[in-house]
Amino acid sequence: MKELLRTNDPTLIAFAQALLSGEGIDCFAMDVHMSTLEGSIGILPRRLMVRADEWERARRVLTDNGVELEEK
Questions:
Q1: Any idea where the DUF2007 domain is (predicted)?
Q2: Which structural domain, as residue segments, surrounds residue 29?
Q3: Residue 29 resides in a domain
Q4: Which residues pair with 7 in a beta bridge?
Q5: Contact (CB, 8 A) for 5 and 47
Q6: Beta-strand runs (E) in 8-72
Q7: 21 exposure class (CB count in 10 Å sphere: 0-12, 13-18, 19+)
Q8: Tell me, what DSSP letter sits at residue 41?
Q9: How far from each other are the two terminal CA atoms of the chain, in whole angstroms?
Q10: Spatial contact of 66 and 8, defined as CB atoms under 8 Å apart
Q11: Structural domains counted in the chain
Q12: What is the dihedral of CA 11, 17, 20, 25, to 10 degrees?
């Protein structure tokens, strides 16, 4: 698995997951339950992971739909 996206915005994670799912790309959101440990104040980012062999395709899907990603 390779990190595709890291954000504090849970709606962005959901949007990205929907886009990837629509293209048949499996993804996994990590750190979604960390808000329980931090007191639900949103300081710990969530990560969206994809298989390494689908990373470039997944990245293209997100950027083509307006999601800004960090350069890696």
A1: 1-64
A2: 2-53
A3: yes
A4: 46
A5: yes
A6: 27-30, 46-50
A7: exposed
A8: S
A9: 15
A10: no
A11: 1
A12: 160
Instruction: Estimate to the nearest angstrom the gap between the alpha carbon of 38 and the chain centroid.
Output: 20
In-domain check, residue 67 = no
Residue pair 5/59 in contact (Cβ under 8 Å)? The answer is: no
Task: Write the pLDDT tens digit of every residue in 13-70.
Answer: 999 999 999 999 999 999 887 766 666 666 788 999 999 999 999 999 999 999 999 8
The two structure tokens encoding residue 2: 């390779």
Contact 1, 51 (CB under 8 A): yes
The answer to whether residue 34 sits within a structural domain is: yes
Asked if residue 16 lies in contact with residue 48, where contact means CB atoms within 8 angstroms, the answer is: yes
Examine residue 69 and state whether it is found in any structural domain, yes or no.
no
Structure tokens at 8: 């504090």
Specify the pTM: 0.85
CA distance 38 to 29: 17
